[in-house]
Amino acid sequence: MPFWDNGRFLAVVLVVMGHAVQRLTADSNAAYSVYVFIYAFHMPAFAVISGYFCTADPPGVKQMRRVLTDLVVPYIVMQAIWSLVQFLVEGKRAVNLTEPHWTLWFLLALAFFRLVLPYLALLRWPLLWSIIFSLGIGYASNVDSTFSLSRAIGLLPFFVMGWQLRGGKLMSRWQKAPARIVWPARAAALGLFGAWFAVAVVWGADFKRFQLHLWFFYDDSFESLAEQQWWAGPLRLGLIVLSVALIAAFFALIPRRLTWFTGFGTATLYVYLLHSFVLYPVRESGVLGDQKESVLWLISVLVGSVAIAVFLSSPFIRKVFRPLIEPKPRWIFRAVDSRPGGASRVDPTGSRRR
Question: pTM for this structure?
Answer without folding.
Answer: 0.91
